[in-house]
Structures are given as structure tokens and as C-alpha cells.
Design goal:
Layout: H1 2-19, E1 22-25, H2 29-34, E2 39-43, H3 48-53, E3 60-63, H4 67-78, E4 82-85, E5 87-90, E6 93-95, H5 97-109, E7 114-117, H6 131-139, E8 142-150, E9 152-156, E10 164-166, E11 172-176, H7 188-206, E12 232-236
Parallel strand pairs: 1-11, 2-7, 2-8, 3-4, 3-7, 9-12
Antiparallel strand pairs: 5-6, 8-11, 9-10
């Protein structure tokens, strides 16, 4: 059954990649590539479908060894991504998490981008875990925090991450923050927290309806225009 569902997800992603146009704002990738600078995408688990739809071929992705992780592997392969499986320890049993992180580091050192759902696979929503900071520090890559906003979207309102599914035939807006770089001598926790602050600011400004569901929502919501004005949501139970 899991195999069947995973290929259904892959079929859905293929449909969305064919019918949805992704428009990127403040995209720094061309300049970073010209400078020979590696980069790692950091995004909310809730935005993973939009990220897969707009992913560039050769992007390495870390996927948990859970059933939910199994569901997205064919979709990632279809999008031309390189998949590494691994999760945190569970019941004191290693689940390949460190090996997957090491593989991402080597991939980025070799010149390829990587993508990490920073609060996955079990949250809490909006809490940036240390993996993205570790990959960045050990590879020298910039972290590209990105917030995705489909024009129309279905939201799994009872899922921990409030997974967002773009609706076919409508545009997806992808908003990049300024690249975040590791600093010499910076502690991993301090770097992780710095990335989290960037993500909070981005989501609070660009997706104020969903931002309150993330942890650490004490970040002030700005008065700047938001992408929310031109989006519509469809909520459903997960």
C-alpha cells in the first residue's frame, strides 16, 4: 500500500510540475554559482511539495526512514533529486541520520545544492533543527531560507506541519531571504538560532495567516505588504 501511495504522490508532483509555474523573488543562486559558492535550501516541512515542484535537478535531499518519508522518495527521484535516507535515533537505535547528514555535506562540497526541511520530520513546526546549520558549517555553504506561497493551496490543518498542497494550474511564489553564511568560531546552536530568526521573519511577513502555528511567534509581524493578499486557502483534515 505504501508503495502504491508513493507513486500516487509522484504522479501528483508530476502533474503539479507540469501545470504550476514557480516564480522566484530575490533569487541569489546565479550570483552564488558565479562565485563558486555552494548553498543549502532551508524551508518549512509544510512547504515541501512546493519546493519539490520548483527544485533544480541534482539537489540532494535528506528524507526520514519513516513511512511518510517513503511516500515522497519517488516524487523526489522524478524531480531529479538525489535522495539520502536517515532519521534521528529512535529508542536508542541509530537510524542513519548522521550518515545522511555526512552525505549531504559531501554532496555540497562537490558543487551540488542540498535541501533540508528544517523542522522535519516531526517538528515542532517552525523549529529549526541543527542539521541545516551543520551542513552549512562543514561544507562552507550559504543557507538559502525560502518561503513558498501557492496562489491557491490546500492546507492539512490537523497535521503537525499544516502541510500545504498547491492547486494545479496556479502560480507558486518562492521568496528567498538574503543568504545566511556561517561565521568563523560560531557555535552550532547560535548559528541554528540565527537561521531560525530569518525563517520566522520571512514567514511572519509573507504568510501571516500560517505564521501563528509556528513556534517562537514572538517575532514581530511587520507592516510591509505580504503575499497573503493574493492567496486563497482550502483547509482540510490530514
Amino acid at each position: 500500500m505504501t508503495r502504491l501511495l508513493s507513486w500516487m504522490v509522484a504522479g501528483l508532483v508530476a502533474l503539479l510540475r507540469f501545470t504550476c509555474r514557480v516564480h522566484f523573488h530575490n533569487d541569489p543562486r546565479e550570483q552564488l554559482r558565479a562565485q563558486g559558492q555552494g548553498y543549502v535550501y532551508g524551508f518549512l516541512h509544510a512547504h515541501q511539495m512546493s519546493i519539490i515542484i520548483g527544485s533544480e535537478p541534482g539537489t540532494a535531499a535528506m528524507v526520514s526512514r519513516s513511512r511518510d518519508g517513503e511516500l515522497v522518495v519517488p516524487a523526489l527521484n522524478l524531480a531529479g533529486c538525489v535522495v539520502y535516507r536517515g532519521s534521528k535515533k529512535s529508542n536508542n537505535r541509530a537510524r542513519g541520520g548522521q550518515q545522511a547528514i555526512d552525505s549531504l555535506i559531501q554532496h555540497v562540497r562537490g558543487g551540488g545544492p542540498a535541501a533540508i526541511a528544517v523542522d522535519g520530520p516531526r517538528g515542532p513546526r517552525g523549529r529549526v533543527h541543527k542539521g541545516v546549520a551543520m551542513v552549512s558549517q562543514q561544507s562552507g555553504a550559504a543557507v538559502l531560507v525560502i518561503v513558498a506561497r501557492p496562489k491557491y493551496r490546500w492546507i492539512a490543518k490537523y497535521a503537525w506541519d499544516r502541510l500545504q498542497m498547491p492547486i494545479p494550474f496556479f502560480r507558486i511564489e518562492g521568496y528567498f531571504a538574503e543568504p545566511v553564511f556561517p561565521r568563523e568560531g560560531e557555535k552550532l546552536e547560535a548559528y541554528r538560532h540565527r537561521i531560525e530568526l530569518v525563517l520566522r521573519e520571512m514567514e511572519s511577513r509573507l504568510d501571516p495567516k500560517e505564521f501563528p502555528y509556528s513556534v517562537g511567534t514572538e517575532t514581530t509581524i511587520t507592516d510591509e505588504p505580504s503575499a497573503d493578499e493574493n492567496s486563497e486557502d482550502l483547509s482540510a483534515a490530514a
